[in-house]
Amino acid sequence: MESDDATLLRRVARGDSGALTRLYQAHSGRLFGYLLRLAGDRMTAEEILQDTMLAVWRSAGTYAGASTVTTWLFGVARRQAYNRLRGTPPPSPSEPLDRADPAPGPDELAIAAAGGTPVASAIGDLPDHHREVIGLVFVAGLPLAEVAAVLGVPVGTVKSRLHHARAALARTLATQGVQE
């Protein structure tokens, strides 16, 4: 599949919008789940995903093959998210969420599968660098080496952050009386 993605990305670099559509179809679910975790609300995550795909369209020719296409896409998404969210306060808990699409997204499905609201609350209490690793590993499903490439840190740092995030989640859930 990765060679197919690289082929698609080369076609995108040549201006093939159909190839961009196929990349979007293949990766948008995991990208959206990750962006939803970073942004905190569905509408902003959707906007960042669109910004990401526009950036992919514009910069596909810069892909040098030093990482997998998936890693490269998550790196683009991460940069777009940080550009968009820089200086933007998170949505207030009292603000209503966008109700146009009541279906749960990939992030909500992953959290629900992991135990629902107590888990979501515990994840929300983690520091940003731990939440980001949790999102990339468990929501986006990236291997640790790809998470390291997206974040620009060594694999050992990813492992350490993941270990500390899991330990913090376990402690929080144990104090809440939630069964693991």
UniProtKB/TrEMBL annotation:
Keywords: DNA-binding, DNA-directed RNA polymerase, Sigma factor, Transcription, Transcription regulation. Residues 84-106 are annotated as: Disordered. It holds the Pfam family Sigma70_r2. The keyword Ribosomal protein does not apply. InterPro entries: RNA_pol_sigma-70-like, RNA_pol_sigma-70_dom, RNA_pol_sigma70_ECF_CS, RNA_pol_sigma70_r2, RNA_pol_sigma70_r4, RNA_pol_sigma_r2, RNA_pol_sigma_r3/r4-like, WH-like_DNA-bd_sf. It comes from the Bacteria. Gene3D superfamilies: 1.10.1740.10, Winged helix-like DNA-binding domain superfamily/Winged helix DNA-binding domain. Residues 23-86, 122-169 form the RNA polymerase sigma-70 region domain. GO terms for cellular component: DNA-directed RNA polymerase complex. Belongs to the sigma-70 factor family. ECF subfamily. This is RNA polymerase sigma factor.
